[in-house]
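Hello, quick one for you while I still have it in my head. Could you read through the record and tell me how the tokens relate to the sequence? No rush at all, and the record is pasted right below.
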Amino acid sequence: MSGYPSLRPHSSSSKVIDLPDGLYGVPDAMLNGLQACRASSSLQTVHPLQASEMVWQDHQMKMDFVMLRNSQGLHAPLKLQMEHFAVSQMQRLPCLHSSNLMMDTLTGADDLIKFEDILNNPADSEVMGQPHAMMERKLGLL
């Protein structure tokens, strides 16, 4: 084996959710319903591919790094990981939106049109915070 990650999807957890009993000894679904279950870490996946799809990008990056290591040597994936780390540290002021164009270029996400690109663009948001308050909060002064 050449060190490639497994291609089979694996479930992240297989625990059964137990809701606490309510006033009459029956689980109170209205009080401890769906949102409380989603927040718990003991959720069971709905479909076997759900866990695989959640970590698809990381899995693909690991496979690319292993292939790169096998073909070019250890320096190539280390260089790319260093570039990813350096790009992830760059950021704007907290009140300004960042498009993360450098990270998208490194990962190849600039060639893809995703759901977030059309319907969930934070730059189109009408809410703007106060720059001084946001910077003081980031620095821990508030």
Notes: The first helix runs from residue 34 to 39.
